[in-house]
Amino acid sequence: MVKSYSEILDRVKRHSAVVLTAEEVSRLAERGETSALEQVDVVTTATRAVMSGTYAVLSFPVAGPGEFLRAKKVFINGIEANVGPCPNENLGVLDVVIFGTAHSRSRPNYGGGHLFRELVEGKKVQVEVETDAGKALQAEVGLEDMPHARLFGSRHAFKNYSAFINPSERSVRTIFHAREFEPGCREATFSGCGQINPLKNDPLLETIGMGTRILLNGAEGFVLGTGTRSTPERPNLSGFADMHQMLPEYMGGFVTSAGPECIVSWAVPIPVASETVLQEIVRQDSQIPLPVMDVVTRNAIGKSDYGCVWRDVDLEVEFDAGECRGCTCCQVEMTCPMKAVRFGERSAKRDEMLCFHCGLCVTQCPSAAFRCRLGSIQLKTPSGDDRCIPVVLRQSDRLRAIKLAEELKRRILEGSFKMAQPLERIS
Question: 121: exposed, middle or buried (C-beta count within 10 Å: 0-12, 13-18, 19+)?
């Protein structure tokens, strides 16, 4: 029997609630364990993906009081920051807004997502200031020097997303591929974590609302409302969290053929407080539509489902250094969107903490040192034809999304993450 939101919160406080990750719920559903599913109080959901609608609001000192009146232009590691809105006259303090999609003028393939991760990692960043009087200032700062550092999402956590193919006769540069997208429907890319996605499990926004507590890149944050371009059919969320509490493994920069993008992770607790939510938590990947889009026109040209890309595949890319041939020019090093692969003295080396498990390396390595089953898009075109198009790049990382959902479950059960009813419903 479905419990009320308040009843579930009471059970959580008394440490008697049944809290499962969305992955655990899916396994119960696969086994047909209906009675066990009916006992679930809270499902922890998560997603990790390239999310363009990301920006940071930072405030920090760069000089002593009176050294300049106002800042006119600011660059951080070569990335232009939007100054203000507060001028902070004569205080020597900057208030800036930095977009996750902003590109550095001095560092190739470096953007806002890279900057945000480096700050959270504790690295120092270089700040260049041009004042309204034409004076140039420089400073080196870290996150510990920033009393205020918050990451915001204007459009995050879509209820899954889309797959993309290029049916045209020419290759194209796009944010939906890490290299030029080959023509002729020869390859596919996609985004969306499928059955563990937060809004997939609460599509009517019955439990997710204004003020819902979440984990954003591992830090406790809150839902502000729906995001830009959100619709009842394809909702997304806006939210924020303090960067000082974030974990770098859940964030970062992702280099596409159109330039750097930003990676963000969300985890959201879903109380099973309605029949609709109960029905949705058991829905499997194969039952979730995956629209297939023309990457050039952004028009839908067919449909697949998330079972094609998340079932009978590998979530983790395996790397066998012993299989590396030691190519003079390592294609994986050149094309890895995370720059997680570097060629050492004799073979390639992978940074496990940076790897997004996107799978592009599998198609780029001639020696099969990288292995991963990525699935394929089973496309039924409007004309009725069936096409099987191999996936060559994933822009969602389900492996770490599962890990973040597990982290949220742990915090709820130990009592360090305080669930509360939303202040107001959103739509």
Answer: middle
Tokens of 199: 């809004």
DSSP of 258-272, one letter per residue?
Answer: TEEEEEEEEEEEEE-
- Asked if residue 425 is part of any domain, the answer here is no
Contact (CB, 8 A) for 232 and 241: no
Structure-block tokens of residue 56: 């940071």
Best CA proximity match to 191, nearest among 398, 335, 370: 398
Distance CA 277, CA 262 (A): 30
pTM, to two decimals = 0.96
Secondary structure (3-state) at 151: strand
177 and 208 housed in the same domain: yes
C-alpha span between 241 and 214 (Å, rounded):
9
- Last-in-domain residue among 148, 166, 197: 148
Q: Could you tell me if 366 and 380 lie in one domain?
A: no
Residue written as token pair 């390239």: 50
Least confident of 74-78, 120-124, 188-192, 319-323: 319-323
Contact 272, 2 (CB under 8 A): yes
Whole-number Å distance between alpha carbons of 95 and 346? 47
Question: What is the number of domains present in the chain?
Answer: 3
Angle between helices 398-414 and 22-30 (to 10 degrees): 100
Note the pLDDT tens digit of each residue in 343-392: 876 778 899 999 999 999 999 998 889 999 999 998 876 677 788 999 99
Q: Are residues 279 and 399 in the same domain?
A: yes
At residue 402, what is the residue type? Answer: I
Tell me which amino acid residue 303 is: K
d(CA 306, CA 159): 12
Same domain, 38 and 101: no
Pick from 153, 166, 290, 171: nearest CA to 230? 153
For residue 53, the cross-strand partners are 155
Q: In terms of domains, do 17 and 90 share one?
A: no
Domain that holds residue 330: 318-371
- 387 and 324 inside one domain: no
Could you please report the per-residue DSSP string of 182-201? PSTT--EEE---GGG-HHHH
Residues 278 and 194 in one domain: yes
